[in-house]
Design a protein that fits this description.
With 296 residues, the chain is mainly alpha-helical. It has 15 helices and four strands.
């Protein structure tokens, strides 16, 4: 019996209907893409709102299409008058308005996915200080964070611009899902030959890429708020970022980094400022809800 319970999975319909049983405990209902990441969003929301809004649980729906479908079929408020908020990954949709669904309670992350926010310097130093059992200054001297950050933004940025072209023009080539293992060397650097091979395979299908690359960079500058660093990071998948960082840290410290432990520490301590847009958007929606209730 236990084996059956452990292997139990929910259909998308069952996931969607969980709100019938659990929304009582929430001030608002938040629907997200990823099944199995509920604990991540719960912790992030607890840190982000710090008691201002109670989100006991979030509701995963199994992908962006499922979240958008649920949003289309659902009123902005549930039957008890609670606000429904739908949160989806930015992916490459943040570059093109024609790929986005516009609705007041549908919010796109400003980066590729939720993992793309984790790798902030202070959170990394916090983990590595305990991991290496040395002072902060010693950690900074050992891990060369700025060096990694600089080469990562340059190399990963170039790769993910190609991924954006492939996705936008629906080219039949591997995309982001193959990136982590295929394009990184043991030190977390971009494998130049694999990048060049991938670049050539796109050219074979599309011809010279300069106009398309220029288009992507124009979209990045036009659509994404922030400095140059923020703009580039916004289109890079967080899983790729995390893997590059872990390989770089292993090179610097000569120790393997346990991905799950590292990720858990980052989730509980990464810099929340890039997610303030999400907090402000939700508070604005809740304020409008309260105003409408008072006017009835």
């Amino acid at each position: 019996m236990n084996d059956v319970v452990e292997d139990l999975t929910f259909s998308k319909e069952a996931l969607s209907n969980r709100t019938l049983f659990l929304s009582t405990f929430n001030d608002i209902n938040v629907f997200v893409e990823d099944v199995g990441k509920e604990y991540i969003y719960e912790e992030i929301f607890e840190r982000l709102f710090d008691g201002q809004i109670n989100i006991f649980t979030v509701f995963p729906l199994g992908g962006k299409d499922a979240v958008i479908k649920k949003q289309n079929e659902t009123n902005i408020y549930d039957n008890s008058g609670k606000l429904n908020v739908f949160l989806v990954d930015g992916d490459f949709d943040i570059l093109w308005e024609d790929q986005k669904v516009i609705a007041p309670n549908l919010i796109y992350l400003t980066r590729y996915n939720i993992e793309s926010y984790y790798c902030s310097k202070e959170a990394i130093l916090k983990y590595m200080r305990g991991f290496l059992k040395c002072t902060r200054d010693e950690v900074e001297a050992n891990i060369h964070f700025e060096e990694w950050s600089d080469f990562f933004k340059d190399e990963a940025g170039r790769l993910f611009v190609l991924f954006a072209i492939v996705k936008r023009y629906q080219i039949d080539l591997p995309n982001v899902s193959t990136a982590t293992g295929k394009f990184l060397d043991a030190d977390g650097r971009l494998l130049s030959q694999r990048f060049e091979d991938y670049n050539k395979s796109i050219i074979e299908k599309m011809g010279p890429l300069e106009p398309y690359i220029n288009e992507i960079y124009e979209k990045i500058n036009e659509k994404i708020v922030g400095d140059g660093s923020e703009k580039v990071l916004s289109i890079i998948c967080g899983k790729y970022q995390m893997e590059s960082l872990c390989r770089h840290l292993k090179k610097c410290c000569h120790k393997n980094i346990n991905r799950e432990t590292f990720r858990s520490v980052l989730i509980s301590s990464f810099d929340l400022e890039p997610l303030f847009f999400l907090k402000n958007a939700i508070i604005h929606l809740v304020s409008n809800t309260n105003t409408e209730e008072q006017s009835i």
